[in-house]
Specification:
Elements (H helix, E strand, L loop, with lengths): L10 E4 L8 E10 L4 E4 L4 E8 L1 E6 L5 E4 L2 E5 L5 E5 L5 E9 L26 E4 L12 E2 L2 H16 L4 H25 L7 H13 L7 H8 L6 H9 L3 H19 L4 H8 L4 H12 L3 H7 L4
Helix pairs in contact: 1-2, 6-7, 6-9
């Protein structure tokens, strides 16, 4: 058997956005127990988003990186990585396995992990290099916008529903996710002509996170920032890639999902707890954002 040069990974391909044709191999929303630990290589690419708890990750034998909740880490094809749970409770995560160019089809879940006694060199996916930039930062825990997390949920639902349009709908969702993540990557590189407001806006976002159940009007936020209320949505979106309304909605839905996972509270009680007094409005909003009703989401946690 011919030896494989492990330093050659990830394999990279100079390309353009127009050539991307990703395939979804596996998508899960699941828990990891406190004693979980794994060291491996994979043939495809993996995005792991922590919903709750904290993971530690070492990629290519580098120093471990903490991946706390509401952050994501990227695992490239062919690169050794070790992952373990760094909290005394279960870690809940969303995991997406994919390739960028539909290089291997069909790609079954059991084909993802490399069997080091029988390495199949042809199966390693290629990573796109577009305008000289790799898709995601290496060995970094990335924060996501609310819209990106909703897309992750939609990808998981699409994978498990396997509708007749699955091949094109899953590809479309992956492309949407890449576009959002790469816009945020580029925004961080180019920011910011309004850097003087960034600290104030970060403090505002922190206040909203602590008091998500309260009403947050433009007028109230303008008083905190000491600026005209017309400027608030524009500057907020420039800094965080989303509007205050959608950021608040994301915070509320995050907490609603946590309560659905961890408690037996009634859906109506959870809605009120996160700031929605109207049960029907809360249920419609949750379904529109997540793709499942609150009750269906709670049941889905026992499926994967």
């Amino acid at each position: 058997m011919t030896a494989i040069d492990n330093s050659a990974f990830p394999r990279q391909k100079l390309t353009s956005y127009f050539e991307l044709a990703p395939s979804l191999h596996l998508a899960v929303r699941a828990p990891l127990p406190p004693d979980f630990r794994i060291k491996r290589r994979i043939y495809d690419f993996f995005l792991c988003y922590v919903l709750q708890g904290e993971l530690h990750v070492s990629i290519d034998a580098n120093e471990p990186v903490a991946v706390p909740e509401r952050t994501m880490v990227y695992f490239p094809a062919g690169v050794w990585h070790e992952t373990w749970v760094a909290s005394p409770q279960n870690v809940y995560y969303i995991g997406i396995h994919f390739d960028y160019f539909s290089e291997t089809a069909p790609f079954l879940p059991e084909d993802i992990t490399v069997n080091e006694r029988n390495v199949r060199d042809i199966r390693f996916g290629a990573e796109p290099i577009i305008d000289g930039v790799a898709p995601f930062p290496a060995r970094t825990a990335m924060s996501l916008s609310g819209q990106s997390e909703l897309l992750l949920d939609a990808i998981v639902n699409e994978y498990h529903n396997q509708s007749p349009t699955y091949p094109i709908s899953s590809r479309g969702l992956l492309l949407q996710l890449f576009a959002l993540l790469w816009k945020e990557r580029d925004r961080q590189r180019l920011l910011s002509p309004n850097a003087k407001y960034k600290e104030q806006l970060s403090e505002l976002a922190g206040k909203m996170e602590l008091s998500y159940h309260e009403p947050w009007t433009n007028e109230r936020m303008a008083r905190i920032l000491n600026m005209h209320e017309d400027y608030v949505p524009k500057l907020f979106k420039l800094a965080f890639g989303t509007t205050p309304f959608h950021y608040l909605q994301h915070l509320r839905l995050q907490e609603a999902k946590r309560l659905l996972r961890e408690t037996d509270m009634k859906v109506e009680t959870i809605g009120r707890r996160v700031g929605y007094c109207d049960l029907h409005y809360f249920s419609r909003l949750f379904h529109k954002a997540i793709g499942l009703s609150p009750s269906e989401y709670r049941k889905s946690l026992h499926v994967f």
